[in-house]
């Protein structure tokens, strides 16, 4: 059954409602936490929740911006790597490049990926849904990797999608994620709307509103059941489906009420950031909301986007960048060079990633912390540049998903485009699904110019 983000997964809710009937109303939302605690007490490592966060920034991430010190990025004429074999380097005695400098405390968890191509998603600017789907940038041709992982790592809110749109006042866009072909998913770009969707039950008046809603849903479900009983069997199924829908909504209302204490503890105090239209503050608020949702156990998969696909890149007027599109054509911010200006924008994002990681590392989980069981993926929706070539799509991984991926502290440069051992971003996405416990032999569409290469298969160089 398909589901929408920022709505409860009906299958998940219903399953745990049934399991929790004998334990009382509070058992439904707490069921996954209880199950995890029991599993850990029994020494089962699979009792730990695993989670994935995608941070997708606009305007490109140059290969040189993820190349560590002491290594030269040798670019082919097309823009990809030049070698025929995998290059693997330790980051232990190497400095991260300036764009990633805020991530330095996480260096032993980081894996830098160069050389994975994404030519199938080639476009003049953003690869749009193709960036996370590994397919053509022109249209929505299938499920994106973040949505697939949400199905593999279920939670009450299967998939939380938050972002900064073309400007700080955009409320929602549909630029990067998809549930299936022709089914793009909405990204909430308003911190106020995102907060209400995830933490609305802690707002003033929430108790009275909850009581009104649950009483109505309870009445509607009973009314539908009574009506169904009077219908012939051929028509009864339709109303029974409606009854199930009302029961799922009721269950979600009950769950949110039961979790109010947990939600209240972890709901971020956004202050003015909740209603701001200042881009950097919007982005900061969205990261805080996403982190709180993870810590509160509301979701296991988050997608944070910055920019809104196509030829809309975002703007930071507070930094002197009225339109980031100009940076892609040699522009600059406040007297800085073009490269320095890009680094400023990248560091806004990597600093927020570092703060998220620190908060997760402060939360005990199993024999370690929440961060130990989390993977953060940082990339750009336009790959290697403002006008991308996508022979190499720079990607930064932080974490190992609870030991499912090989430990970080590595730089991996995959063989050049067209070489026998070359790999695409589809292979990375298949790897992530495999690590999340979902069997995946192949992900994404093939690049027809790589017909002699097996594409989209999991990367053994990453799997533990």
Describe the structure.
- This protein has 464 residues and is α/β, with parallel strands linked by helices.
- The protein has a single domain (49-196, 267-450), classed as Alkaline Phosphatase, subunit A (3-Layer(aba) Sandwich), CATH 3.40.720.
- 34% of the residues lie in helices and 12% in strands.
- It has helices at 10-20, 27-41, 130-133, 145-152, 191-199, 206-229, 233-258, 260-266, 279-295, 338-361, 425-435; strands spanning 51-57, 87-90, 110-114, 160-164, 172-173, 178-180, 183-184, 187-188, 301-306, 364-365, 368-369, 374-380, 395-398, 410-413.
- The protein has an eight-stranded mixed sheet, with helices on both faces. Strands 5-8 form a two-stranded antiparallel sheet.
- Strand 10 (364-365) and strand 11 (368-369) form a beta hairpin.
- Helix 9 (279-295) runs parallel beside helix 10 (338-361).
* Number of E strands: 14
Q: Counting H and I runs of at least 4 residues, what is the number of helices?
A: 11
Q: Assign the CATH class.
A: Alpha Beta
**Can you give the helix content as a percent range?**
25-40%
Q: Mind telling me the C-alpha Rg?
A: 23 Å
What's the arrangement of strands in the largest beta sheet? 2-14-3-13-12-1-9-4
> How would a crystallographer describe the biggest sheet?
8 strands, mixed
Kindly report the average pLDDT value. 81
H/E series = HHEEEHHEEEEEHHHHHEHEEEEEH
- Secondary structure class reads alpha/beta
Please indicate the count of domains: 1
% residues in beta strands: 5-15%
Terminal CA distance reads 31 Å
Shape: globular
Uncertain residue ranges = 12-34
Named at the architecture level, the CATH assignment is 3-Layer(aba) Sandwich
CATH topology: Alkaline Phosphatase, subunit A
């Amino acid at each position: 059954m398909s589901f929408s983000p920022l709505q409860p997964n009906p299958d998940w809710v219903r399953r745990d409602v049934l399991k929790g009937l004998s334990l009382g109303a509070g058992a439904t939302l707490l069921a996954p936490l209880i199950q995890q605690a029991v599993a850990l007490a029994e020494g089962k490592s699979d009792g730990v929740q695993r989670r994935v966060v995608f941070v997708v920034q606009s305007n490109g991430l140059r290969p040189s911006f993820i190349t560590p010190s002491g290594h030269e990025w040798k670019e082919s004429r097309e823009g990809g790597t030049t070698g025929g074999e995998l290059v693997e380097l330790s980051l232990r005695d190497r400095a991260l490049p300036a764009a990633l400098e805020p991530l330095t405390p996480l260096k032993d968890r980081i894996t830098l990926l160069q050389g994975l191509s994404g030519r199938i998603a080639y476009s003049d600017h953003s690869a749009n849904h193709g960036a996370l789907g590994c397919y053509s940038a022109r249209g929505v041709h299938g499920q994106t990797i973040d949505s697939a992982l949400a199905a593999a790592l279920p939670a009450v809110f299967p998939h939380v999608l938050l972002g900064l749109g073309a400007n700080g006042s955009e409320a929602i866009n549909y630029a990067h994620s998809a549930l299936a072909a022709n089914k793009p998913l909405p990204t909430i770009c308003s911190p106020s709307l995102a907060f209400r969707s995830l933490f609305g039950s802690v707002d003033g008046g929430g108790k009275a509103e909850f009581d009104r809603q649950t009483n109505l849903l309870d009445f509607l479900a009973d009314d539908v059941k009574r009506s169904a009983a009077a219908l012939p069997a051929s028509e009864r199924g339709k109303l029974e489906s409606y009854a199930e829908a009302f029961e799922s909504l009721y269950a979600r209302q009950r769950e949110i009420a039961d979790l109010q204490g947990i939600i209240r503890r972890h709901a971020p105090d956004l202050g003015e950031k909740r209603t701001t239209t200042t881009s950097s503050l919007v982005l900061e608020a969205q990261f805080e909301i996403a982190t709180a949702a993870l810590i509160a156990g509301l979701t296991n998969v988050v997608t944070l986007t910055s920019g809104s696909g196509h030829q809309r890149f975002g703007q930071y007027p507070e930094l002197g960048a009225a339109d980031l599109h100009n940076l892609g054509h040699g522009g600059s911010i406040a007297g800085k060079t073009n490269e320095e200006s890009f680094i400023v924008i990248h560091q806004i994002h990597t600093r927020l990633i570092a703060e998220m990681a620190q908060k997760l590392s402060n939360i005990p989980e199993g024999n370690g912390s929440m961060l130990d069981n989390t993977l953060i993926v940082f990339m750009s929706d336009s790959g290697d540049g403002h006008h991308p070539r996508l022979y190499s799509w720079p990607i930064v991984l932080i974490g190992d998903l609870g030991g499912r991926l090989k430990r970080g502290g590595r730089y991996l440069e995959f063989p050049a485009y067209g070489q026998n051992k070359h790999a695409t971003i589809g292979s990375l996405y298949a790897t992530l699904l495999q690590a999340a416990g979902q069997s995946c032999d192949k992900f994404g569409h093939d690049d027809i110019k790589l017909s002699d290469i097996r594409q989209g298969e999991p990367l053994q160089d990453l799997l533990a």
